[in-house]
Specification:
The chain has 9 helices and 7 strands; from the N terminus they run αααααβαβαβαββαββ. It is of the alpha/beta class. Helix 1 packs across helix 4, helix 4 crosses helix 5 and helix 4 runs parallel beside helix 6.
Length: 232
């Protein structure tokens, strides 16, 4: 894998802000030597942080009132539904904490293996809640949470059911911003995601290809979406 200089510079700038990996690794021209070890070297983390930051920046332009609210809230509640083991937890937390340092992050998944093995003691600061996305209000009530400010939904592929979140009738999502990705290497997945948003009464604000997706496929899917609940 060969990274052009503009991509290296982009990742270096992101890494300077979030300190996700060694700058020397990103500056190296010998990318082939570490391409098979992206997970360990956290380069994929930097790419993920770059894309999430980009989406949040565009949201500030398109939904300034909502984003100002997030920045000014005394605390922010973020939830990743269908999280699996949430390998991107560390860059996600760092980007959200830069927006609002008082951010609580929950991972929600129904998979028994994930429930049994999710590591609560990792450095991500994420709390795992076992259950179905459709039970989100009940699950979060058990954590004494009454709202979701940022909802993440990454890569619900066509072989899985897009979660029935029904934003219009789900009071916990009244002011939520949804951010997520489809697997754009499969055009069916992108259509599936867009239809799922519409069916669940979300209005799509951003659909944006991920220019780093092909370089860092690991949890760096494409395109990215951002959406908000439709008004009743």
């Amino acid at each position: 894998m060969d990274l052009d200089q503009s991509t290296v510079q982009l990742l270096l700038e992101t890494n300077r802000k979030y300190h996700l990996t060694s700058p020397g690794l990103l500056s190296s021209r010998d990318c082939e030597g570490y391409a098979s070890h992206l997970q360990e070297l956290r380069i994929a983390d930097v790419a993920f942080a770059n894309r999430l930051e980009d989406i949040l920046s565009e949201l500030k332009q398109k939904e300034p009132d909502r984003m100002k609210r997030l920045e000014e809230l005394p605390d922010v509640v973020a939830v990743d539904v269908g999280s699996s083991y949430m390998p991107y937890a560390r860059p996600l937390r760092k980007v959200l904490s830069a927006m609002n340092p008082h951010t609580r992050i929950y991972a929600v998944d129904y998979n028994p293996d994930v429930i049994a093995n999710f590591d609560r003691d990792n450095d991500s600061g994420v709390r795992f809640v076992g259950g179905y996305a459709e039970e989100l209000q009940k699950l979060l009530a058990g954590e004494e949470e009454t709202r979701v400010d940022v909802l993440f939904l990454f890569n619900p592929v066509p072989t899985h059911v897009f979660p029935e979140l029904n934003a219009r009738d789900n009071p916990i999502l009244n002011n939520a911003i949804l951010i997520g990705t489809a697997d754009g290497f499969d055009s069916q997945a992108t259509r599936h995601y867009a239809r799922g948003l519409t069916r669940n009464n979300f209005r799509t604000i951003i659909t944006k290809p991920n220019p780093l997706g092909k370089l860092f496929r690991m949890y760096n899917y494409s395109p990215w979406f951002a959406a908000v609940p439709e008004a009743a």
